[in-house]
Design goal:
heterotrimer, A alpha/beta, B mainly alpha, C mainly alpha, B: mainly alpha, 0% strand, globular, C: mainly alpha, 77% helix
Chain lengths: 205, 218, 245
């Protein structure tokens, strides 16, 4: 159930940003991606999630094991919190949403329209979606944005429980979550070098 | 898939979902036509099938950008793309939801609008049948157009420009069938053609839409 | 000859090098054929006994109509090559051909209207052929607009080639639909391999030369525009790299 990334090169808008990225994510472990803005964290995560093809290299994961959470939470404003979660649970072929509601303290808000939630509450709803999917490998892009300190602790606890249960997580975040078994991968050394300028070839870059 | 369909239907029904907008637009078009061409019943009866087909087509066009753009904006499409649903299923369900919320109400409202345009009584059955058979194709083709333009800001005009030429065969056969029905002629050939176009687009176009959507998501 | 050698020309550098040598020759030939074909057609053929001197517009009308369709076919092929083999030059060639094809369509429509006025007594009729060309024009418009609307070149190439594939099917469908919708007054094909149906020889040979001229003109324009597109693409790539630092 581990995620393996081999010699991955990725491009954003046709420009190669990272190359030669390799890592393995074993069950029960978390990997935190670090690097300055624009280095390609989001692109890397989207590539791992299968949303965009890599320039070269491979991403190996067991089929149907990944779940991705990006900058936007995919929440429908006119549906209630429970309806939003129920929808994703059904899409992933599951039923019970109450553990997810409880873990992020959303139970009191369950019948409120998602459009009425604050930014932090929306984020919590977005993260609760991870729990209803039941997938073992979480791929998270800046999961703590707009969360207050209490909610960050809540999130760290959920991720901790997920790891303890044999799941794993790949995160891009600037906040220290204090996760056990978390490693950090600094992306700066993998920054793509510009190709030779007179190299007028197929790929243009 | 059913969950996605139900969600889309529910979203359409809720406030701001745009349900009924197409219908209102259709009504306005039908109301404006006599102002443009004059109130003579005979003339209206001749052009009624064409006007009703055009009105349905435009009402359908009006709501196309809602099919995918909203899900694109709030990130649902990214999440759906990583969910255990094939993209082909997602676009098919989206097209079906669009047809149920736009195409089907238009078909059901057509008899009333036909009355307004003094459509001859023998024309109702073929007109309804042609719309019933043709509007699914409009939704499926429209989903393809919506998938093409989903990443673009202000893609609405471009969407019309891309989709309208693709609507030509459906419109021609559909309106031809309705017209022949009004004239009391045999309309089995255009009927088969409309049905064929609809079946063909439903079977094949989702693959193109899904491919396009994947390109747009990366 | 190894067929794989063919793909070498899909390399932008190789393409530019090759067209450096080919383009002048093609351009000269195009001008030569056009001048000879058109002059021969205009000044050295008799008037038609029914149509009078209006018949001479066929030396522009028929070749441009042919090229309007052939340009779309060429775009279809290059789009397929892009989808299957992902050669950038192929996608750029499709992009380069579209405006040329669109202008050919407009020329065909305009010359048709000019000819139709004295012959049919109307500038425009909803005849199947005319209507098909109008629809073809709309397809060109949509295709070009989509290219212009998308910023990322690869995304644009992918989307437009799929549009080209889908559009081709629907264009073909429209052609049959339009035929069904209105049996028209346009005459049958002016040219066919079956010699019996052809226009008389006096008109036939200059027409062939004019068609060759239009084909060569099309090739020359597409090569030229593809070179421009390659360089523009190259420039954007360099700028992007510069921004990246």
């Amino acid at each position: 159930m581990s995620l393996e990334v081999n010699d991955l090169s990725i491009a954003r808008g046709g420009v190669r940003v990272l190359e030669g990225v390799s890592f393995t994510l074993a069950p029960g472990r978390a990997l935190v991606l670090r690097g300055p803005n624009g280095i390609g964290k989001t692109t890397l995560l989207r590539t791992v999630a299968g949303l965009q093809p890599p320039v070269s290299g491979t991403v190996e994961a067991e089929a149907e094991s990944l779940v991705y959470a990006g900058h936007s939470d995919g929440i429908k404003a006119t549906l209630s919190v429970a309806e939003n979660l129920n929808f994703w649970a059904q899409v992933f072929g599951r039923k019970d949403i109450s553990p997810a509601l409880k873990a992020f303290d959303l139970a009191p808000l369950a019948n409120r329209a998602a459009g009425m939630l604050s930014a932090g509450q929306k984020r919590r709803l977005g993260l609760a979606r991870l729990l209803v999917t039941g997938r073992p490998v979480w791929v998270l892009d800046e999961p703590t944005v707009s969360l207050d300190r209490e909610a960050v602790a809540m999130f760290a606890q959920v991720v901790g429980a997920h790891l303890a249960a044999g799941g794993s997580a790949l995160l891009a975040t600037h906040i220290e979550l204090g996760l056990e078994g978390a490693e950090t991968l600094e992306l700066a050394p993998y920054r793509a070098r510009a190709a030779e300028v007179d190299d007028f070839d197929e790929a243009f870059l | 898939m059913i969950a996605l369909l139900l969600r889309d239907l529910r979203l359409a029904m809720r406030a701001g979902g745009g349900f009924g907008l197409g219908l209102a637009f259709f009504l306005i078009v039908v109301t404006l036509v006599p102002f443009g061409v004059g109130p003579q019943g005979g003339l209206l009866a001749t052009i009624a099938p064409g006007i009703l087909w055009l009105g349905a087509l435009l009402a359908c066009l009006l709501s196309l950008d809602r099919i995918l753009a909203l899900d694109w904006e709030d990130g649902s499409l990214d999440l759906l793309a990583t969910a255990p649903l094939p993209m082909e299923a997602v676009v098919s369900v989206k097209a079906l939801a669009h047809w149920l919320t736009t195409g089907l109400p238009l078909v059901l409202a057509t008899p009333v609008f036909g009355l307004l345009l003094s459509l001859p009584s023998k024309g109702y059955a073929p007109l309804l049948l042609s719309l019933l058979l043709g509007t699914p194709a409009l939704s499926v083709i429209g989903t393809f157009g919506a998938a093409l333009t989903v990443g673009l800001k202000r893609g609405g005009l471009l969407l019309s420009l891309l989709v309208l030429p693709l609507y030509v065969p459906t419109l021609i056969f559909g309106a031809e069938m309705a017209r022949r029905g009004v004239d009391g002629l045999d309309y089995s050939t255009p009927l088969l053609m409309v049905a064929g176009i609809t079946c063909g687009t439903i079977a094949l176009l989702p693959f193109a839409s899904a491919a396009v959507l994947r390109v747009n998501l990366r | 000859m190894n067929l794989n050698r063919l793909w070498e020309y899909a390399n932008p550098k190789k393409f530019i090098e090759t067209t450096d040598r080919v383009l002048p020759a093609v351009s000269v030939l195009a001008v030569l054929c056009l001048v000879v074909g058109l002059a021969w057609g205009f000044f050295f053929t008799p008037d038609d006994y029914r149509q009078g001197s209006t018949v001479k517009i066929i030396y522009i009308h028929v070749p441009s109509a042919l090229m309007a369709i052939n340009a779309w076919l060429m775009m279809l092929v290059t789009s397929l090559v892009w989808i299957v083999r992902r050669h950038h030059v192929s996608a750029l060639a499709a992009r380069a051909a579209a405006p040329v094809g669109m202008v050919m369509t407009v020329i065909a429509l305009l010359t048709g209207a000019i000819w139709g006025q004295p012959m049919w007594g109307t500038w425009w009729a909803w005849d199947p052929r005319l209507t098909s060309f109008l629809i073809l024009f709309l397809f060109y418009l949509g295709y070009i607009a989509l290219w212009e609307a998308i910023e990322n070149d690869d995304t644009a190439a992918d989307l437009t080639s799929i549009l080209c594939l889908v559009g081709s099917v629907f264009a073909l469908l429209s052609r049959y639909a339009v035929n069904f919708w209105n049996q028209g007054l346009h005459q049958g094909a002016s040219l066919s391999l079956d010699k019996e149906e052809n226009v008389a020889d006096v008109f036939y040979y200059p027409l062939l030369v004019a068609i060759a001229g239009f084909v060569l003109l099309f090739v020359a324009l597409v090569l030229l525009r593809t070179r421009t597109e390659i360089r523009a693409r190259r420039m954007r790539a360099l700028l992007a790299r510069e921004r990246m630092g």
